[in-house]
Design goal:
Layout (H helix, E strand, L loop, with lengths): L5 E5 L3 H13 L3 E5 L2 H11 L3 E4 L8 H9 L9 E5 L4 H9 L4 E4 L4 H12 L1
Parallel strand pairs: 1-2, 1-3, 3-4, 4-5
Amino acid sequence: MAPATKVLVIDDDQTFTTMATSLLRTAGYKPLVAFDAMQGFMFAQREQPALILLDLSMPAGGGMQLLDKLQHSSKTQNVPVIIVTGTGGPAVEADAKAKGAAAVMRKPVDSKALVDLVKQVLG
């Protein structure tokens, strides 16, 4: 059996990370969690996940700056990023997509919609 596909969740919201990791595990993925942008960047470089779920508002650098760093790193530039955020509106969504985000999902998230989006982005 092939190893489970790694999905990195970068979010400082403990409630969201607990829910997301549980959903991902149930759907057959291997969730990894980082609670701030710096830790998230280090995990992404080391673990080479297939997908990243990224919050925009968190300590040690915001999600937009991290998205930019991920897009400019040879190790992570091809890793799709789904922004999952409770902040901002259409302008933030457009900015995230312009910076390379595969998709943007608003919090609070619908669990089925989140898993469906992960499956869709991973093809």
